[in-house]
From TrEMBL, chains A, B:
Source superkingdom: Bacteria
Keyword Zinc-finger recorded: no
Protein species of origin: Cohnella phaseoli
Membrane topology type: Multi-pass membrane protein
Phylogenetic placement of the source organism: Bacteria, Bacillati, Bacillota, Bacilli, Bacillales
Name of protein: Trk system potassium uptake protein TrkH
Record flagged with keyword Transport: yes
GO CC annotation terms, alphabetical: plasma membrane
Classification via Pfam families: TrkH
NCBIfam families in alphabetical order: 2a38 (TIGR00933)
Transmembrane segments: 33-51, 63-82, 94-118, 145-166, 209-232, 244-265, 311-343, 364-387, 426-447
Length: 465, 465
């Protein structure tokens, strides 16, 4: 191949790429594009993970397990059917780590950019929020901001890698420690919850450095793109956007509530807090109270917790983290809007407001659609799992926990994941995909045409409550 | 006492009554009045039931059990801590039956009348719906309509009593049969679910007469005041009010879905359908698929059903029956409005409509408040019951079932009710009370003043989903 040939090839490759982008831009809405990119990335990851070279024993883990793991990694979920640390080779683990970074940080920035730059249907309002939070109005400005976000993320990840390497080097040597630090930092910032220890981070239940580093990473990742950039730019509560204030207040309340409730409840449970001293108990409650915000790591065994605590985790997982972050669930901001709307109705108020700003009716309607469809998905998945996992056996709480964890991309499990039937694995895989995209994105991606009725009907009444 | 004295006494009694009514009218809102009347009736009933004379063995069942039973009867719930047929004397059973009729039919008519006649806060919209459904605009007209409703109810109850007496006389003689027919007809029409057999109606799992009579009664009672009167007056689908159409369509879908799903699911379950022939299975599925619409009777053992079916019953119980009827839950009409609003958002539509009528935003907001607060109550009660009923034991599904059944006034149980701890009994009693009044009535009853902010805030945006 001479220089001329090469130039011709480069030129044709470039033309093909431009053609694909234009095709995508014209033929697809942003939600469709996001869905298809996720779908393709998952299959590419699954093919890599099913290679014999990805397994530590040189035997392929099989396509279903590979597909499950790839979906879990790309969707930053963290549910695992095979133990990440022992079953995968270093190559397999690195593939998982890359998928986590692409699926988490990559989509946090690229996904938002795609939605904004190509945004027609759902883009407008999101664009407004982001522009307000970032004082940026041009497409160029938004690209710059995404790079800003990536740099912030890398800075946090580097700092965490440094701290964890130092913490772990005495136990496993510098090289191994650096690798473990890298893997768990990426997994934590992206709220993926993949760990190289089979009991997650249980060995470090009372370890201040591991606890603080990991918790800080997954909290920042869970706050999301807009809030983090907003915080870095404004550095003043008063100047923050309404979205940031809502997310920060909601998260704060849930973190404190999760910590206090788990500490009070598990103190009665000999199976979890029995062998721990008071310091370890406080760390464990702090860690386990924050982890339902989609992180998915655990320092105490979820299956041994009190039924009450497990149920509490289900509720917290369902609420999840903030929009535009690496976490899932219906989102804290959605939840806060719903609670504000409910309080407003009970008080007989006429406008839903927070921080001296009015929240529009269409925002509440979106929140309503999200919570109703999310509930429907979780309940349907739980119903299907009670059938697929032996319908004459009673393990309802495990099944409800698994369904919520899969949907909210949390990745905690009471132990059902490793025992799933093939059908159960497929159900959970689909749920992880649906949960990461979210019901709104999925609905907009699958919708045919706008069915806006042009007839203005007369208003009529229905009794409520 | 001579004639003059008597006249003076009558006159003073009348003056006192007028004074009380005026006091109530001026000092209390309709929701407060309803709450206080319920509260008083429950305590009066509890005192009667705690009399030794109410027990078949002449020993008082104790105040807590009496309070539980009275709440269950007045709130037409049907959960029982002692067996109605064997523990109570005929006197006790008649007291329960009167409480059911007062709490069900009495409140269906009187409660709506109180809300309409004294209605200020929540009355306006309800009044509109009822006036539309009944073509009545005056207070007098509404009183007349309530009497109309009572007559319809009595007619149905009489017919049912006749049918059931004939059905049962060969087994127990005419007198006993008439008494059993009376008790179960009242219990069925009012969706109370109290039965004189300890296994509810399980002996009649394949009996066409018992199945049809009881199902017809609880379906009519569950449709509610407005729909039944509307149907009797208009006798044409096209002329029905929007509320009636929504209730009838929603109920129809839920009845068919409940029947089909239970038939398909329980056919796999040897513990329930094992000994039944195809006819009995069809009746059982029909009966058990309708009974979560708050009726609370059962012809197959709920505790032996598949986990999937039990979970399905929980969802159906939570949705419940129609507003203004003898059933509970968030109400079918509320559910339909929420589903319509969700579909509208997904389609990018601009108005929520059904049957060529627009449904207003404030109606959707009320529905949202009802579902959010109802979810909160059920989840909180389930959490508390996991603690009160031995927190180291795993009986989560039983507990969630019990909480939903108590809140939705359904009264089905997987078997936990009879094993409840004293604290558990108190929790369930309060839940039955809260569930029958409904979150909206309770919130309006407990609200201090209207906190309507007069400041018009500028609209701002929050990301959703
Ligand atoms: K996760
Ligand atoms: K009932």
């Amino acid at each position: 191949m001479n220089g001329n040939d090469r130039r011709t090839l480069h030129s044709s490759v470039f033309r093909v790429l431009v053609a694909i982008v234009n095709l995508l831009k014209n033929k697809m809405s942003p939600p469709q594009l996001i869905m298809i990119i996720f779908f393709c990335l998952i299959w590419i990851g699954a093919l890599f993970l099913s290679l014999p070279y990805s397994s530590s024993n040189g035997e392929s883990i099989g396509l279903l397990n590979a597909l499950f793991t790839a979906t879990s990694a790309i969707c930053v979920n963290g549910l695992v059917v095979v133990d990440t640390g022992s079953v995968f080779s270093t190559f397999g683990q690195v593939v998982i780590m890359i998928m986590i970074q692409v699926g988490g940080l990559g989509f946090m920035t690229l996904g938002v950019m795609v939605a904004i730059l190509l945004g027609k249907k759902i883009g407008l309002k999101q664009r407004l929020v982001i522009q307000q939070a970032t004082h940026s109005t041009s497409a160029q400005g938004l690209v710059k901001l995404s790079i800003y976000m990536v740099l912030i993320a890398f800075a946090f990840e580097m700092l965490a890698i440094l701290l964890l390497t130092v913490r772990w080097h005495s136990e496993m040597g510098w090289g191994q420690a650096a690798y473990y630090a890298l893997f768990h930092s990426v997994s934590a910032f992206n709220n993926a919850g993949f760990a190289l220890w089979s009991d997650s981070l249980s060995s470090f239940v009372g370890d201040p450095i591991v606890n603080m580093t990991i918790v800080a990473l997954f909290i920042i990742g869970g706050l999301g793109y807009i809030v983090v950039v907003d915080l870095f730019r404004k550095r003043s509560w008063r100047k923050l956007s309404l979205h940031s204030k809502v997310v920060l207040l909601g998260s704060g309340i849930l973190y404190v509530a999760g910590f206090l409730l788990l500490f009070l409840l598990e103190s009665w449970n000999p199976a979890t807090f029995g062998d721990l001293n008071i310091g370890e108990r406080l760390w464990a409650a702090l860690f386990q109270g924050s982890t339902p915000r989609s992180s998915g790591f655990n320092t105490i065994d979820i299956g041994s917790m009190l039924t009450t605590s497990q149920f509490l985790l289900i509720i917290l997982m369902f609420i999840g983290a903030a929009s535009g972050g690496t976490g899932g669930g219906i989102k804290i901001n959605t939840f806060v809007v719903l609670v504000l709307a409910t309080i407003n109705t009970f008080r007989g108020g006429s406008q839903i407001h927070a921080f001296k700003r009015k929240i529009g009716v269409d925002t509440v309607m979106r929140a309503l659609a999200v919570v109703m469809s999310s509930l429907a998905v979780v309940l349907l998945v739980a119903l299907l799992l009670t059938l697929s996992e032996g319908m004459l056996e009673d393990h309802f709480l495990e099944v409800l926990f698994e369904a919520t964890s899969a949907f909210s991309t949390t990745g905690l499990s009471m132990g059902l994941t490793s025992e799933l039937s093939p059908l159960g694995k497929i159900i959970v895989t689909v749920t992880m995909f649906v949960g990461r995209l979210g019901p709104l994105t999925l609905a907009f991606a699958l919708a045919q045409k706008k069915h806006t009725s042009k007839i203005g009907y007369a208003e009529d009444h229905v009794l409520i409550g």
